[in-house]
Amino acid sequence: MPPGTLLLLATLACLVASAAIGALPLLRPLGASLPAGDTPPSTPAPIAGLARAALLAGFGLLAVAVGVRAVVIGHAPWSNLYEVTQAFALFLLGAYLVADRRAALRELAPLASLVAALLVGVALLLPAEVVPLAPALQAPLLLTFHVGAAIAAYAVSGLAFVAGVAELVQRRAGDRVTALPSAARSRAAAHRAVLIAFPILTAAIALGSVWANLAWRSYWNNDPKELAAAATWLLYAAYLHVAGRGDRQGRWSAWLLVAGFGLVLFTYLGASLLVTGQHSYAGV
């Protein structure tokens, strides 16, 4: 199956999962009204099964696409934006599935699936040609762990963003949106995600500095992507400071997650497409 077909199917599966899981709370009230005290009707099993199957299918198709790419190119499949974007979507869905298993966050599935679908859609717009690694990239171990750690941090921060959006919506609606977890649960999920993403991002930046010194004889070059990564790190550090406060400042934490994910998107995409720097060797 051509890689583009896999990505198209993955996008469709993610969109189906997003729509179907998002519709589940709307389906529960359907049916005859019940006397007070009776158990409300449960979610129709076929719809719930379709939603879960679509989410797992999207994850599986992305895993196959990333795996096939790795076999074709012979190294970690994240040496350009096309490959990184595929892996970003895969890791995001993986992060959600792990979080859902541990904390029962099914209500975040529609948002997580939608963000993954958008990422795969971006990948479909990027050139998919296989090109040899540039000399500066010919360090398979660092390529695997530096870029892999960055993608993992981006993915978990994407989950934090989804939870942050849910918190903002619920705070405004007074926790009346049944399709989303409560503001408190959303905030707790976002905080756990950042506690995981932040040290991974720190490790990714440290490994990048080591790689930069090997390639360019300097640990730091004020490259646009380096500066964007540093700004992202500082913003999440600010979030960890603010999120622990119980006063009015603590209410800004969800907005910091939204801004943080915006910086993540700029770091991985904007810093490559909009400005020229030493990381431009990765191409688009």
Summarize the structure.
This protein is mainly alpha-helical and 284 residues long.
Write the layout of secondary structure elements.
Layout: H1 3-27, H2 45-73, H3 81-103, H4 109-125, H5 140-173, H6 183-216, H7 224-243, H8 253-273
Helix pairs in contact: 1-2, 1-4, 2-3, 3-4, 3-5, 5-6, 5-8, 6-7, 7-8
Give the key terms.
8 helices, mainly alpha, globular, single chain
Architecture overview:
The protein is mainly alpha-helical and 284 residues long. The chain contains eight helices and no strands. α1 runs antiparallel to α2.
Major β-sheet annotation: none
Oligomer: single chain
Helix tally equals 8
Number of strands: 0
Q: Which stretches of 5+ consecutive residues score pLDDT under 50? A: 29-44
Query: How much helix is in the residues?
Result: over 70%
